[in-house]
Amino acid sequence: MQAMPQDDLAPVRRLYERLTEALQRTRRDPFNVPVTVAEIYRELVPYRLVRTEIGFDMNADYEHALLRLLAGEGEWVRIEPPQAAEEIRQELRSANPNSSFYRAYA
Questions:
Q1: What are the helix (H) ranges across 10-97?
Q2: How far apart are CA 9 and CA 102, in angstroms?
Q3: pLDDT tens-digit profile of 87-102?
């Protein structure tokens, strides 16, 4: 994976920060229990709750940042199985990435 300039990682980092805040608010043991991809985008940091705070102009911006987070950019989260992260990275590298590709791992 090619290193990204820090500014380019800003939306991914902010999404991760909101995710960790949501986990701390809603879970007894927030970082030792796995979370599903569906829980992330439906309950913990859904677009409607974070769009203004993070500065997403469109749902596609949110979905792209979520894809990048799940792909392992910034090394903040890990998706299982490892080949899922590789599939997401491949999708991100494609000429016209499907920004809702993460739903396949819900």
A1: 10-26, 37-39, 47-54, 59-71, 82-93
A2: 18
A3: 999 999 999 999 889 9
